[in-house]
Structures are given as structure tokens and as C-alpha cells.
Amino acid sequence: EAAYGQEMNIQFSDVSCNSVAQKIYVELNNTVPCVRLLNATHQIGCQSSISGDTGVIHVLESEADLEWPLSKGPNPPYMVLLESSLFTKSIMMKMKNASSRVAGVVVVQKTSPPEFSPHTTCPNENTGVYTETYDHNLAHCNTTVWNPRGNGLSYEEFDSPVFSLKEDNETEVIKQCYFDHNRVVNGSGLQYPLCAMQLFSHMHAVTDTATCMRRSSMDFSTSPVMVCDPLGGYNVCAFIRPYNSTAFGHKENESVVIAAARLDSRAFFLEDSTGAEGSVSGFVTLLAAAQALREATQEAPPTRNILFAFFHGEVFDYIGSSRMVYDMKNNMFVIDLDNVHSILEIGQVAVRSGTNLFLHSDPVSRRNNTVHDEVGVKCFYLWHASLTDFSQPLPPSSFQRLLRARAIPGIVLADHQTDINNRYYESFYDNAAHLNLTYPSNLSPEEQLEFVTDTAKSLTEVATAVARALFKQAGGNNSQVNKINADPKTVTQMLYGFLVRSNNSWFQAVMAPELKDILQPNPPQYYVGVAKSSHQANALTYLVQYLLANLTGTATNLTQSQCKKPDELPNESTYLYSYLWVQGVVPPNSTQRESFCVRTAVRLVKAVSPAFDLGDYISKEYSTWTKSQWKFIKARIFLVASRDLEMLTLGVGVAVLFTSLLVTYFVRTKADVLFSSVREPNNAAY
After folding, report:
1. Taking residues 654-683, what's their average pLDDT?
2. In whole angstroms, what is the distance from residue 558 CA to residue 600 CA?
3. Cα–Cα distance between 546 and 522 in angstroms, integer?
4. Contact 491, 272 (CB under 8 A)
5. For 271, how many CA atoms within 13 A lie in the half-sphere containing its CB?
6. Can you spell out the DSSP letters for 588-621?
7. pLDDT, tens digit, 9 for 90 and up, residues 570-625
């Protein structure tokens, strides 16, 4: 293939190199691969062969066009390029079942279909509270199928590579190469050379989590190679009245209301997940509610404490929430389950015109009169939302993990009464456009940051209602309630930063100088990632941590050196607070930032499944998801010669080789004759 590639006259305007390889290949740099994930029983996702997979490019223009790569095409295997509108389960499964003729698939992200969800119809089916023992009538989504659009594509296994490609100049290069060399016109045969593509995404892990973790532990080399890594990261937590961070376990006479939201989302291509409605709408609302509560809780502290909890890894069997419950049960958290008074979780709340908010509760725990009454009180506080049917179970939510441990009063606030409204649940279409996050075309990026969208106005109203309900639930003074209002400017800035461009002036101002590189001209990644031994969180976690710190913390007069060592000062304590040095804003007519130190109760708490601490890789109680390691990911295109020309070239090469060997043998055997010299007589005269 590559050895017989012909020089391609396809170059990007800014690339100039005399390398032979770079004259043969065009490297594709804006690709995102589908990778392999494993759990206690399965492996899912995609991979290439160890040397990569190569195929002749075929651009799929309709489902009927599948006949060419699957049966009619004379030059298999094919590398199929299709637009996202054709990225359906039926098409993908047809190509999967014809793996001998389809070497791989490249999906070009373009227009959004009416609906698409590659997730399952019953998310986190086996790790929520609704098991056969809890209530068999509610198990396995028997009463409510929460995601009826789910086709389960994200949970299929593909033995060929599948890549995502942005609609940009690289896509145009591939299509032009196809039209110039591969496209069939009026049924005529193809003329060589043909345009081909090679995809590399070989995965190290196989079978299941137990197998890959065992293989990782068996490496006795000086530089051990991990075959797979547990999924996980960090939860972001903050109390309105902080506790000593080193004193774990039960707190006497303390009652805590938990306000929760999830951070992560996923898609078929993990790095393409954006989760605009699935997760961003919820945690942005909770961040805005936390800011709205700051002043009221300082002026008139409620009798109960409030814990803001942002859980990571919830898409993969509730990694973050199950970890917090595990820590509470084992005295490894600053409070225990007996300190938890109730919980209010913010689910998908992308409220649109004509829709309402709904309160979901657990029908099983509400059979207890105390729980039932407390849920009724909380619903009264959120009077503008409607309580769903008493017999309906909770939607997929972190609250379910707390209920597995104890019957705790609580509700989940969402914009759907029965099944999920989100047409793009856990897919790469759940983005800013899906939330109608649009801006006038004449605005600069900074003006877009300040522009209050209709979506921001809707979420501001929800955040205000949530903040007031939390204040009342925590026993706050009713005289303060009407003073609690979320800020629409803050909400619109957060939506812009999380869904459009994280590298903006506001996010720059609230971040630490050493973390400024995580800000990019695009949204952060919402896939949870893998648990790192370096104790580093991912970009999303840091963004939420620093935003929550700036929205609820206190700006101090500490210098940068004091901010790093606050315990040396008489009135500061790292046991109660974290101290974060942030960049600050750039004043007008200045080039220097006004950096300062923030005192905050925000903490990062490990969000890694307890199954990996316990070594129970076949656990049915906790998440066992891992991600395979790989050597490298690469995609490239080139021109490939005909098989006849390849064979002719090979034949000529072999002939030249044997001819060279024969000549070498002959020369060596006759060397004494060919290279002998005649000695002249000693008395020769000149």
C-alpha cells in the first residue's frame, strides 16, 4: 500500500516539506477516534488492526449507496466517508456485518438530524436504586422508558476503526481526492491510481475490565505499561459553612441539604461530547443558584448547612455520586449519611417556551410518612414546578445512589414529565445550537460573552427558584427569600464559556495563571476521562472549581506568597478553606492583570469507583468502566496503485534482487582473476 503509493499533488497552502513520506501522505489532524471501553462483562467501542487499516475511499451519499462498498465495488476493502445525517445504527450495523469489505468509517459532522441518541433506552439501568429487590415493578425501566430514542450504538463493539472528522478544509481535501480518482461515472470502471485512507487506532485492552487490570498488574518491567485505566476524576464540593477538611465522619447536631448536579456527558466519539442540555444546563443553573445564595446565607445563615455537589462520571454508572456515598459510609467524608437531611438535584432544565418544570420523587421511599411529608414541603418551595405521578420512579440521577444507601427525602428537578425531552441525549448533537444559544452575527467574541440570550434568561429564572427553595429547605429566614435572585449576566457568560468558547476574558480572569492553557477557543471536553495518578483534574473540573470559588468565595488582600502558605497567618486556615490565586481582570489602559487570592470552601474530592480501591473488577454494586490504552492515533490519505502494477513492481524488484545476488556471486568467485595485478621485472628500465 504505502510502499507503492504515488505522489499526491494535494497540499495545504501552509505546508511545505521535501520529505518523501510527506509527499506520499496527507496527514489528517482534526480527527477524533471511537475508542474501546470495558466493564465487568463487556468491551465496547472501536479499534483498528495493530498495523492500521487501509481502504479505498468511498463517499456515501445515501443509504442506497451502501451497495457499492458492501457488494458491487471491485476494489475492497473500502474506507467509507459519510456525513452525520447518515450516521445511523442501521447503516453502521450493515457495515459492521460486512467487515471484510469495509475497512473503517469516517463520520463528517455537519447537519443535525431530527433526533439521535446512541445511548441506551434505560441509562445506568443496573446501578441505580431500582433493582429487583428494591421494587421489581420499577426495575429495568418497566414503567417509564426514559430514553425511547436510544439506539444503543455507543454500546456496540466494532472491530474496525471509526473516526469523526470536522467539516473543514481536510474534509474538502478527502472529498476532492475521491471525486478526482474514485467516483464512478455512468458505471464506468475506475482508473488507477485510487485515493485510499489509512486509520490507526489499535487498542491494548481486550475482553473486560478484570482481564485488562490483571494484565496491567502482571507487567514486571522497569517501565510498566498500563493496558487500561479506570474512568474517573474529581467531584467539586462546597459547603456554605465549611467543616474541618481533616475531620471525617458524623457531625453532631449538623443537618445538611445537598444540592447536586452532574458534570459529565458522553457521545459515540468521547471527545466530541458537549452535553449542552444533558449536563451543562443543570450545573450552570446550580452554579448560578450558589452565587445567588452567597449574600443571603452570610447575612442570615440558615439553620441547616447546604452542600453544593457537582458529580463527575455519572454517565458511566454514577462514578462520582457512588464514590461520595461510599466515602460517607466509611467515614472518609466530612459528613456521613445520617447528616444528610434531604437532596435537591438539578437534572436537564433547558426550559423552552411552552414547557414546564417537573419534580420527580421516589415512590418507594415516599411510602414512609416522614419522607413523604418532607418531599411535599420541598415541592411547596418549588411551587411553580409540577409534581409527577406518584407511582413513577426517578429518572436517571445521582439521587438514586443515595437512596441505595438510605431513604433520604429528595426530588429531581427536570424539564420532562415522563421520558427525556432531549432529542440528542448523550450525542455530539447536544451542543450550543441545540440549546438555541445563538448570537447576532455582527457581535465580536467579547460582545457575545456579554449578550444575554433567551436561554440564559430561562435558566436564570430556574436558578432563582432553586436558590430560594434551597434557602427555605435549609431553614432560612423567609424575610430574605425575595432578595435572592440569580444574575442573568453570570448565566449567559457561563453558557458562552462552557458551550462556545472557554478562552474568554471572564474565564481568564477567574483562573489560576498556571491553568490558563486549559482555556481553548472551543468548549471544554465533557467526557470524564481517566483517573490520573498525578492528582490532576481535567479542564471541566478546574473550570467549575474556580468558577464556584469566585462566585461563592471571598477576595482577600493576601499576596501571592501568602496565598500559597496561608497557615502562616493568624486568621487563616487551610483546614476550613482553600486559597486560590487567580489572574484577575486587565484594567482599561493597562496590560497587567490585577491578580488576587480567593478564600473559598470549594474542594476537589476523588471521583473514582470504589470497585478499583476494593479490587473488585466484577462488581455489581459499583462502576467498573475502564478505557483502553493505545500507542498512537493517526489518520492519513494517499494514492494507491493498481494490484497489477504492485505485482509488476514487486516482480521487477525480486528480479533485480536475484540478478544482484548472481552478479555478486560471480564477481566474488572470479575476484582473483578480475582484480589480479601483473608484477613487473625488477630490471625494467624507463
Report:
1. 80
2. 13
3. 18
4. no
5. 13
6. TT-SS---EEEEE-EEEEEEE-HHHHHT-TT-SS
7. 889 999 999 999 999 999 888 899 999 999 999 999 999 999 999 999 999 999 99
Task: Give CA–CA dist 452/470, Å, rounded.
Answer: 25
C-alpha distances out from residue 56 to 26, 51, 84, 87, 193, Å: 15, 17, 20, 19, 10
CA-CA distances (angstroms) from residue 127 to 36, 135, 147, 178, 337?
21, 14, 16, 46, 19
Instruction: Report the candidate in 548, 539, 545, 536 with the shortest Cα–Cα distance to residue 520.
Output: 539
Amino acid at 566: P
Cα-to-chain-centroid distance, residue 669: 68
Please state, in angstroms and as integers, the Cα–Cα distance from residue 559 to each residue in 45, 471, 566, 583, 595, following that order.
49, 34, 10, 13, 9
Gap between the Cα atoms of 216 and 227, Å rounded: 5
- Cα–Cα distance for residue pair 57/534, rounded to 1 Å: 41
pLDDT score for 386 = 72
- As a whole number of angstroms, the distance between CA 13 and CA 101 comes to 34
**Residue 487 burial (CB < 10 Å; 0-12/13-18/19+)?**
middle
Q: Using CA atoms, how far apart are residues 24 and 351, in angstroms rounded to an integer?
A: 52
Interatomic CA distance for residues 557 and 296, integer angstroms? 23
pTM score: 0.90
* Distance, CA of 157 to CA of 664 (rounded, Å): 54
Residue-wise pLDDT tens digits, 409-467: 999 999 999 999 999 999 999 999 999 999 999 999 999 999 999 999 999 999 999 99
- 130 grid coordinates: 431500582
Phi, psi for residue 117 in degrees, rounded to 5 = -140, 110
How many C-beta neighbours within 10 Å does residue 631 have? 12
Q: Where are the alpha helices (DSSP H) in 195-235?
A: 209-217
pLDDT value at residue 682: 59
| The C-alpha cell that represents 19 in the structure block | 520529505
Instruction: State the cell numbers at 456.
Output: 440564559
Asked if residues 324 and 605 have their Cβ atoms less than 8 Å apart, the reply is: yes
Residue with cell 425531552: 421
Give residue 360's identity as a one-letter amino acid code.
Answer: H
Closest by CA position to 162, among listed 231, 244, 99: 99
% of the chain at pLDDT higher than 90: 75
Give the pLDDT confidence of 482-514 residue by residue, as tens digits.
Answer: 999 999 999 999 999 999 999 999 999 999 999
Edge to edge, what strands does the sheet with 578-582 contain?
Answer: 554-556, 596-600, 578-582
**Containing H/E element for 274?**
none
Q: 619 Cβ partners below 8 Å, 6+ apart?
A: 40, 609, 611
**Residue 673 Ramachandran class (φ > 0 left, ψ -120 to 50 alpha, else beta):** alpha
d(CA 89, CA 30): 24
Q: What is the pLDDT of residue 533?
A: 66
| Neighbouring residues of 55: CB distance < 8 A, sequence distance ≥ 6 | 76, 77, 78, 79, 80, 102, 103, 104, 196, 197
Predicted local confidence at residue 380, as pLDDT: 58
pLDDT at 3: 39
- 245, 309 contact by CB (below 8 A): no
Using DSSP's 3-state secondary structure scheme, residue 325 falls into: helix
